Amino acid sequence: MAAPKVKQDMAPPGGYGPIDYKRHLPRRGLSGYSLFALGVGSLLLGYYTLIKWNRERRRLLIEDLEARIALMPLLQAEADRRTLRLLRQNLDEEAKIMKDVPGWKVGESLFHTDRWVPPTLDELYYLRPTSEMDNEKFGLQYYV
After folding, report:
1. Alpha carbons 24 and 1: distance in angstroms, whole number
2. Burial class (CB within 10 angstroms; exposed 0-12, middle 13-18, buried 19+) of 125
3. Whole-number Å distance between alpha carbons of 81 and 58
4. Cα R_g (the chain), whole angstroms
5. Please, are residues 104 and 110 in contact by the beta-carbon 8 Å criterion?
6. Residue 43: CA atoms inside 13 Å, Cβ hemisphere, count?
7. 115-118 — which CB contacts under 8 Å span 24+ positions?
């Protein structure tokens, strides 16, 4: 038997077309200049808001300081009244305790001066329970 005739595949006449081997990626995102401009713009916006907030914060701080300065005489007067009330109560208690001691002068100053010497907390609270003095000295630090 005769072998069948085999037809070999050949290139078409004129050859095959060119093979596309290059990468064709689409352009993605913004260009470098536009990204740089966007970064500088965001920096400038951030600086602007920072400066604006610092001015507002400074204005609020000045307002707080002015309010504190305005309230200071009232708070000082209240503290002075509380001190004088405690001193008066201490003098009354001292007179009651030392009534039998001859030659005792109630409220005689320990200092050899005519000037006002603010009393310490120990001098104010020495006739009171220690819990009151501790509360005045340490306040809310016990709860921390």
Report:
1. 55
2. buried
3. 35
4. 46
5. no
6. 6
7. 118/83
Query: Residue 40 corresponds to which tokens in the numbers above?
Result: 């500088």
Could you tell me the two tokens for 110?
Answer: 């320990």
pLDDT tens sequence across 66-89:
999 999 999 999 999 999 999 999
Mean pLDDT across 15-32? 86
Helix (H/G/I), strand (E/B), else coil: 118 = coil
Residue 90's contacts (CB-CB under 8 Å, 6 or more residues apart) are: 124, 126, 127
What pLDDT score was predicted for residue 142?
67
The CA-atom distances, in angstroms, between 144 and each of 133, 134, 138, 139, 140 are 18, 15, 11, 10, 7
What DSSP state is assigned to residue 127?
Answer: T
* Local structure of 108: helix, strand or coil: coil
In this prediction, residue 5 carries a pLDDT of: 80
pLDDT attached to residue 144 = 61
* Cα end-to-end distance, the chain, whole Å: 110
Reported as a pLDDT band with limits 50, 70 and 90, residue 2 is low
**Residue 92: what pLDDT?**
93
- Written as six digits, the tokens of 55 are 């001015």
